[in-house]
Design a protein that fits this description.
It contains 12 helices and 12 strands. The protein has 373 residues and is an alpha+beta fold. It has 3 domains: 181 residues, no CATH class; 51 residues, SH3 type barrels; 122 residues, 2-Layer Sandwich (Alpha-Beta Plaits). The strands form 4 sheets. It has a 5-stranded antiparallel sheet with strand order 6-5-4-3-7. A 3-stranded antiparallel sheet has the order 8-10-9. The protein is elongated.
Length: 373
């Protein structure tokens, strides 16, 4: 009968029974402790989330990466640790090394994608997830995933001893060819990502782009759809929008109103002096208004011109239109009471034609009078 010492040193599959025993113990301990640690950190993360505790960014990232760690990766770590006690032929060692490298870089890819999603969720949480970011988040994740998994694939090949320089050169040439072929699509894709991240406007905003004025209905991968104020839907390229000057009326805090009053030339001086005070009183009598100025600015060709500027403290156009209408009616009523007349351009009348003549300058009018004798 063999002693324990003899059994311990008995060779089995290129290693002694003792080494196999140590390897099994190392595997079991590692594969037991690591999942327990992962489970503990996961439970703590849930408690932090339920308690709504504000944690340092580094701790949040580490907890998120641990939670995203694949069980296959933990198994591979346990196998790799157990293999340090064993010796195998070169062919078997190569197989084990390939399995470990592939599993490791696969886990790195999962961590990379988790980091991208974590960054996107932090960005959304920072400013509340708006429809623009929600519509473009899939695009951003897709582009980031393509980049991450390409890098993981190349680094895994490099760790396995495969020469990747020719592959990189081929990918570079192919990438340039593809980029030239679909540069307009790529431009719109990048523009969509820029809109999603920079947020110059969001779905529901009223915008004006060149001669297009309407409300944003959808921001897609290639185009943005705007419902114009006349009712039709206008589809614009994202790249073209970013090249244009965009006026975002949806973020207007208040509206500025500027208009002129044309008064006849024979208005008495004391009435002209009273006009700014009367207009100011009428404007300030309206709710949600802030008066700026009323000045007699210019002598027009056919009228004395007063310019009035005031602000409506809300952005709603309907409210602004109601206030402007009330002010116009009140001015008309007060001027009628004060005997102030509005001026309007007049045209000479031709009795022979029984219709007004087009307006002429003074020289042309004198010439016409001389011809008529």
């Amino acid at each position: 009968m063999m002693s324990w010492q003899e059994i311990w040193h008995t060779e089995f599959l290129w290693n002694s029974v003792g080494n196999w025993s140590l390897a099994v113990v190392a595997f079991l301990v590692t594969f037991t402790l690591l999942p327990l640690l992962k489970r503990y950190i996961g439970s703590q993360r849930k408690k932090w989330a339920q308690a709504q505790r504000e944690l340092p960014l580094a701790i949040e990232v580490v907890a998120m990466l641990v939670a995203r760690t694949n069980r296959l990766f933990l198994f591979t770590i346990a196998v790799a640790f157990a293999c340090t006690f064993l010796t195998f032929p070169t062919s078997i060692e190569n197989v084990v090394r390939i399995a470990i490298v592939v599993t490791f870089w696969f886990q790195v890819g999962l961590w990379g994608m988790s980091a991208v999603r974590f960054a996107m969720s932090k960005r959304a949480h920072k400013g509340a997830l708006d429809p623009t970011l929600a519509s473009s988040i899939d695009i951003i994740v897709f582009v980031a995933g393509l980049t991450v998994w390409t890098m993981v694939f190349l680094l895994a090949l490099d760790n396995l001893g495969i020469e990747i320089k020719p592959l990189l050169a081929g990918l570079g040439i192919g990438g340039i060819a593809v980029a030239l072929a679909v540069q307009s699509v790529l431009g719109d894709l990048l523009a969509s990502m820029s809109i999603a991240l920079d947020k110059p406007f969001t779905v529901g905003d009223s915008i004006q782009v060149d001669d297009v004025n309407g409300t944003v209905e959808h921001i897609g991968v290639k185009s943005t759809r705007v419902r114009s104020i006349s009712g039709e839907q206008i589809i614009m390229s994202n790249a073209d929008i970013l090249k244009s000057r965009v006026r975002n009326n949806g973020r207007m805090r208040e509206r500025r109103s500027a208009f002129t009053l044309n008064i006849v030339y024979n208005t008495p001086l004391e009435k002209l002096r009273a006009i700014p005070g009367v207009v100011k009183e009428i404007v300030l009598a309206q709710p949600r208004t802030r008066f700026d100025r009323c000045h007699f600015l210019t002598y027009g060709e056919w009228a004395l011109r007063f310019e009035i500027v005031y602000f409506v403290t809300v952005a709603d156009f309907a409210v602004y239109a109601d206030i402007q209408q009330t002010i116009n009616l009140a001015i008309f009523e007060r001027f009628e009471q004060m005997g102030i007349e509005f001026a309007f351009p007049s045209r000479p009348f031709d009795p022979a034609l029984q219709q007004p003549l087009p307006q002429l300058d003074s020289e042309a009018a004198r010439s016409l009078d001389s011809e008529r004798g």
